[in-house]
Amino acid sequence: MKYSNSQFHFILLEFIKSSRAKIINQELKITLTPPTPNKR
Predict the structure, then answer these.
(1) 6-14 contacts, C-beta under 8 A, 24 or more apart
(2) From which domain of life does this come (predicted)?
C-alpha cells in the first residue's frame, strides 16, 4: 500500500495522537486503581 507523503504524515500523526491518548488513559487508570495485568 502506497501513500503520498502528506497522507503518510497525517496517518502517523493520528496514530501518535491515539497511542498517546491510550498511554495517558492507562497511566490514569494505574494511578486510580492497583496495577493489573494488561487484558486485550
Answers:
(1) none
(2) Eukaryota
CA distance 11 to 16: 9
pLDDT in tens, 5-39: 888 889 889 998 998 888 888 887 766 666 566 66
d(CA 29, CA 35): 8
CA distance 35 to 37: 7
DSSP H helices, the chain, are 5-32
